[in-house]
Amino acid sequence: MIRRWLLALALLLPVTGHAGDARWDDFVTRFVAADGRVTDTGNGGISHSEGQGYTLLLAVAQNDRATFGRVWTWTRSRLQTRGDALFSWQWKPDADGGKVGDRNNASDGDLLIAWALLRGAQRWQQPGYRAEALKILADVRGKLIKPSRFGPLLMPAEKGFDRGPVVNPSYWLFPAFAEFARADRAPVWAELRQSGLALLAAGRFGQWQLPPDWLQVSDTLAPAMSHQYGYNALRVPLYLAWAGLDTPERIAPFLAFWDANTERLPAWTDLGTNAVDPDSAQPGLYAIVALVRQRQAGGTVRFGDGDNRDYYPAVLDLLSRQAAREARR
Q1: Is 64 annotated as catalytic?
Q2: Residue 97: predicted pLDDT
Q3: How far apart are CA 110 and CA 87, in angstroms?
Q4: Which CATH number is 18-143 given?
Q5: Within 13 A of 128's CA, how many CA atoms are on the CB side?
Q6: In the chain, where are the structural domains located?
Q7: What is the CA angle 198-271-315, rounded to 5?
Q8: What is the annotated signal peptide range for this record (predicted)?
Q9: Handedness of CA 212, 113, 146, 202 (dihedral sign)
Q10: Rounded CA gap, 192 and 180, in Å?
């Protein structure tokens, strides 16, 4: 009788641990400091709002409230110091512990953090997280949206990028827009979904007709800055699949690129010369390919077991696995 009572009580008590898998535990051990700073090991050891946002999002998915709490505490105290609800995009370590390297924001980091807070509020019944998320979304709407013939543009940051203007197609966080619309009740989130799809349909370049990392939106569309499909734009097929927007037509350019490079997966291609990365990508990029290919073929996604050396491919691996669990058919 006592054992039954204890079992019933255990089922009613809130979960304080997490059901994380070995990959998540390894990611936290290698890339998340005790104070909650997420280290980009492939980028000089800096931290950024994107990395903090991705880690918060994954912590919710893993029901890892302890990691979420310390990552959010660090993010809020070190990066949300601009005077608004947005976040300085970069933190640089130094002998004194580090400092903000650039007070300008990055809209993908802002949106990732807001998305994670909304999900954390729902999972752990924390209305304070929801209130913080809504403040971020309000400032994104008020400071980072610019009209265009394609619909609203999500500017990469509050400052800069106005000449053209220049946008980053991978900042369109397709799987989050419906959740933003439900929470924030602003039409711009549905409009951004449509403008992002329109830009992807029109802004294709190079031999494989891929989107660029940076896109100039003027009378004509053109690649800007790096003129590559690379470490930014490779997230586009991940987000399309995660949102259930991976129609054959939208996915065809990515499949063509991967099919042309079957011996090894390059992380980038130059959209002017069609040259590709001479090195093979880490397993995290292969995880995106596995997700997209299997969704096109149908059936269960089978991911590889390779280890990722650096933060970015490691987080892409975890995100691809989360997308496989959540994506609509």
Answers
A1: no
A2: 86
A3: 6
A4: 1.50.10.10
A5: 2
A6: 18-143, 144-329
A7: 75
A8: 1-19
A9: positive
A10: 11
- Could you read off the pLDDT of 78-107 as tens digits, one per residue? 999 999 999 999 999 998 889 999 999 999
210: DSSP letter: B
CA–CA separation, 242 and 173 (whole Å): 10
Report the chain (329 residues): mean pLDDT per 10 consecutive residues: 35 40 96 98 97 98 98 98 98 93 98 99 98 98 98 98 96 98 98 98 98 97 96 98 98 98 95 96 96 94 92 98 90
Active-site choice (21, 84, 96, 108): 108
State whether residue 189 is helix, strand or coil: helix
d(CA 216, CA 200): 12
SS (H, E, C) 30-87: HHECCCCCECECCCCCEEEHHHHHHHHHHHHHCCCHHHHHHHHHHHHHHCCCCCCCCC
Q: Which of 25, 35, 40, 50 is catalytic?
A: 50
- Say if CB 236 and CB 250 are below 8 A apart: no
pLDDT for the residue numbered 52? 98
Q: Which CATH architecture has domain 144-329?
A: Alpha/alpha barrel (1.50)
Number of C-beta neighbours around residue 149 at 10 A: 11
Model pTM greater than 0.90? yes
In 44-198, DSSP assigns E strands to 47-48, 88-92, 99-105, 145-146, 153-154, 166-167
Strand order in the sheet with 166-167: 166-167, 215-217, 221-223
Q: 18-143 and 144-329: same fold? A: yes
8 Å CB contact between 167 and 213 = no
What does the pLDDT read at residue 4? 38
Task: Give residue-wise pLDDT tens across range 162-177.
Answer: 999 999 999 999 999 9
The reply to whether 108 belongs to the active site is: yes
Q: What is the per-residue pLDDT for 7?
A: 33
Please, which residues have CB within 8 angstroms of residue 291's CB and are 6 or more apart in sequence?
238, 241, 301, 303, 320, 323, 324, 327
